[in-house]
Amino acid sequence: MRKLHHMNRKKEQASPGEELSPRLSQTEIDKRLVEIGYRLEAHNAHLIRLAHQRATSLFQKAFENYTITPTQVAILATLLRHGDLSQINLGRLTAIDTATLSAMMRRLQDNGFIERDPIRTGSARQSGASDSERHRVHIGSPADLSESQRRGPRSPQTARPRTFHRNAQATGLNAPVIRCRPRSQENLMPQFIVRKSITLVEDIFHDGGQVATVPRRRAAAVAIVSNPFAGRYVEDLQPAMEDLKPLGLRMTDNLVGALGGDTSLIDGYGKGVIVGSAGELEHGALWHVPGGYAMRERLGEALAIVPSAKKVGGFGARIDIPIGHKNAAYVRSHFDAMEIGVPDGPRPDELLLCLVMTCGPRIHARMGGLAASDIKAFDGLR
């Protein structure tokens, strides 16, 4: 089609006396389009344009409360995923040219999405260049900045020791820090993106003994989520627990529904995490508060500590989730575990999060000890 219009345009621009092919009529153009099989609704460019319109609509709905553009969100998402980056590498990852990226970083700073703290580079010290010529990107908050950083750059005579970015040795450069933080104290970007969720329910009628009239029920809610800290060390992890609280409540609601919806029948619980191989064990501890307190909130009177397990595991790893009575940790009849695993996870940069709830004791419990009906202290133990 481009060639057809080009031929007509050449005809219009021809000099007097110059002979060119006769101008194509609309009928001839239509005939050529039929010959090459052109259909607008199936053309890649048309489909891309429709997809862009849809993406723009979804973006405007998701970020209607923020003064931010899709490209700026792409920058912040890249920082949240990769952590420390030189501005050159940030540009490469986002496919944004240097001039455009520099302007966007200034706008993000003006709008409060990022904060800058200059650190003189080795090359700047040698050449006397400006402190702000190069940049290193780090996720953090104003509270993370040291007192010397808040005061601003030192003079060349008192400059701090060179602290190289992870790729600095390859480039010979170090640069100002840009700390990325959500605007106001709200989360601009989701920290943990759910790839899949699973709910399992077991009805246990017997374990070699007499068949029970009412089966023992166990249910597990599993979520495979991205691990924003995979592949790097981050000192302050605790604020990220807030990002997981809505997921904990949603998984708890799924569990309650899977067990029939009557919370008075649920008397046991537990939780666990498998951290993908690019993460560290401490990343699993992020699930303590969001998982445990979500179940306590939905179950009402839940006094006992929520039993927990965590491990770093590879693709397809499994874990035994410990289970105990919700009101008294010493109730022996409810000591149990439920094995959980997902064939396609966790991937190296993912977390497998799990919550388990049960109705009733083990199906043939007969080991004595404190019975659920004899709980008196209501201190979480007895």
String of helices and strands: HHHHEHHEHEHHEEEHEHHEEEE
How many strand segments?
11
Work out the oligomeric state of the chains in this entry. Answer: single chain
Q: Average pLDDT value?
A: 75
Which segments are poorly predicted (pLDDT under 50) over 5 or more consecutive residues? 1-11, 119-190
Q: Label the structural class.
A: alpha+beta
- What is the terminal separation in angstroms? 81 Å
Major β-sheet annotation? 7 strands, mixed
> Beta-strand percentage?
15-25%
Write the layout of secondary structure elements.
Blueprint: H1 2-13, H2 26-36, H3 44-62, H4 70-82, E1 85-86, H5 87-94, H6 98-110, E2 114-117, H7 122-127, E3 136-139, H8 147-151, H9 168-171, E4 177-180, E5 194-204, E6 216-226, H10 241-258, E7 268-275, H11 281-284, H12 288-299, E8 308-312, E9 318-325, E10 336-341, E11 350-359
Parallel strand pairs: 3-4, 7-8
Antiparallel strand pairs: 1-3, 2-4, 5-6, 6-11, 7-9, 7-11, 9-10
Helix pairs in contact: 10-12
